[in-house]
Specification:
With about 450 residues, the chain is α/β, with parallel strands linked by helices. The protein has 15 helices and eleven strands. The protein has helices spanning about 20-25, 35-40, 60-70, 85, 95-110, 125-130, 140-155, 170-175, 190-210, 235-255, 260-265, 280, 325-340, 370-385, 430-440; strands at about 15, 75-80, 115-120, 160-165, 220-230, 290-300, 310, 345-350, 390-395, 415-420, 425. The strands form two sheets. Strands 1, 2, 3, 4, 5, 6, 7, 8 and 9 form a nine-stranded mixed β-sheet that branches. A two-stranded antiparallel sheet has the order 10-11. Helix 8 packs antiparallel against helix 9. It is globular. Bound molecules: 5-hydroxymethyl-3,4-dihydroxypiperidine. 5-hydroxymethyl-3,4-dihydroxypiperidine binds next to loops.
């Protein structure tokens, strides 16, 4: 790598991230059905209709996975807890086996000197709650706060940090407006409700965890830089709207207790009644803010219904996801988030990485393009730090190749290669390069 640990402050945290449904093996340990199981069982939604049933079988391999992390010199592990594994019905009686699993997981992280950084929800909603309307139902805020109390009542004493929800934009817009993720809806009213309720659930869970006496609680937002297709006013307004519902809606709700006006022009008529009354819960103070960053989008206006724009292909080199590589976006987001939303609050890059068509040859994966991608993005973050952004950590996505949701197992994001038949783990060149950077 072009960087090493000593280039950063002593207390700076390097970590790797994963999520429950993407790696654990959902069929093990008495977990309940989730909306991802039904979404994937519906033809056309997921490549080859693949599911997280087995995934990386982290359920049985976690101890070795943490040894790999320790050997690479990571300080922290960002993982998520599966709501349906803990509460198979989403509410009511906990699954003791699920609670015991997370208990073992956390102890094993600590044995390997990894700071446990939990996310309570990374997208696998228990099916019984989806049947009740899921994120469209305001009651989800209460159900989620109850789940936060159950899981943190068991492992909260050993957490380094906790965030309630991974990437609210994906939970709401990607899943209810674009229909790319479970529950696969394409409905503006459902979207408006999900966008508000996901933030209400976030704030309610923060309050529940404060009630348990917990600290170091934050939020994790995925941000995508929007570039207008040309210099016209309509193109600029289109990109500002994309920025509004992708980025500013969620940061605005949490840190300013307000949603952007340009977004409310379209979503306003579909929002829950008196939604403004919830801002005090949504804006419950946090201890840190996490940014997940991968790419930018070029936005062009069109004549369609609101939001009346579309993404067009950009000229930059792309990853296996067809996402442009644009490290400047990370720099700009760190600067802008501090300047406009978070001030002195610590920031973390909670996800960054790339999918690459990695091939295992003679026991090696030469993922030089991933090394280059990480170098460029870490340098962009370092630049922002040099200019005063209080960045306190950087987590790579992902530790392991895993279930990339609707794209199944085809897109490989791991620092460690996984053979999905034998489940064998093989550290890639990027893992080895990071190991040298973090341990020397
Ligand atoms: O795999 C996902 C993860 O679940 C959330 N953030 C983006 C990653 C890559 O698409």
């Amino acid at each position: 790598m072009d960087f090493k640990r000593s280039d950063f402050p002593k207390e700076f945290i390097f970590g790797a991230a994963t999520s429950s449904y993407q790696i654990e093996g959902h069929k093990f340990g008495g977990a309940g059905k989730t909306h991802w199981d039904s979404f994937a069982a519906t033809p056309g939604n997921v490549v080859r209709s693949e599911t997280g049933d087995l995934a990386c079988d982290h359920f049985h391999h976690y101890a070795n996975d943490y040894i790999l992390m320790k050997e690479a010199g990571f300080d922290a592990y960002r993982f998520s807890t599966s709501w349906a594994r803990v509460l198979p019905e989403g509410r009511g009686a906990p699954n003791q086996e699920g609670l015991d699993f997370y208990d073992r997981l956390v102890d094993s992280m600590l044995e390997n000197d990894l700071k446990p950084c939990a996310t309570l929800y990374h997208w696998e909603l228990p099916q019984p709650l989806a049947d009740l309307g899921g994120w469209r139902n305001r009651d989800i805020a209460k159900w989620f706060a109850d789940f936060a109390e159950v899981i943190m009542g068991r492992i909260g004493d050993r957490m380094y940090s906790v965030a309630p929800i991974n990437e609210p934009w994906c939970v709401a817009w990607l899943s209810h407006f674009l229909g790319h993720h479970a529950p696969g809806m394409r409905d503006i009213r459902a979207t408006a409700r999900a966008m508000h309720h996901v933030l209400l659930a976030h704030g309610s869970a923060i309050q529940a965890m404060r009630g348990l006496g917990m600290s170091n609680l934050g939020g994790v937002f995925n941000l995508e830089w929007a570039t207008p297709v040309d210099g016209s006013n309509v193109a600029r307004a289109a990109a500002e709207l994309y920025d509004g519902y992708y980025n500013r809606f969620f940061l605005g709700g949490v840190f300013k207790k307000a949603y952007p006006e340009n977004v409310l022009i379209g979503l306003g008529p579909h929002m829950p009644e008196n939604f403004e009354d919830d801002f005090d819960v949504i804006g419950t103070p946090l201890d840190w803010c996490g940014l997940n960053y991968y790419t930018r989008k070029i936005i062009a206006p069109n004549d369609g219904a609101w939001p009346s724009h579309e993404e067009v292909p950009g000229p930059l080199p792309k990853t296996q996801m067809d996402w442009e590589i644009y490290p400047e976006g990370l720099y700009k987001f760190l600067k802008r988030t501090q300047a406009e939303y978070t001030g002195d609050l610590p920031l973390l890059v909670t996800e960054n990485g790339m999918a690459n068509p990695d091939v295992l040859t003679d026991g090696r994966v030469n993922d030089e393009s991933r090394i280059e991608y990480l170098n460029q993005h870490v340098a962009a973050a370092k630049q922002a730090m040099t200019e005063g952004v209080p960045l306190q950590g950087y987590m790579f996505w992902s530790l392991l190749d895993n279930y990339e949701w609707a794209l199944g197992y085809e897109k490989r994001f791991g620092l460690v290669h996984v053979d999905f038949e034998t489940l064998e783990r093989t550290p890639k060149l990027s893992y080895e390069a990071l190991k040298i950077a973090l341990t020397s």
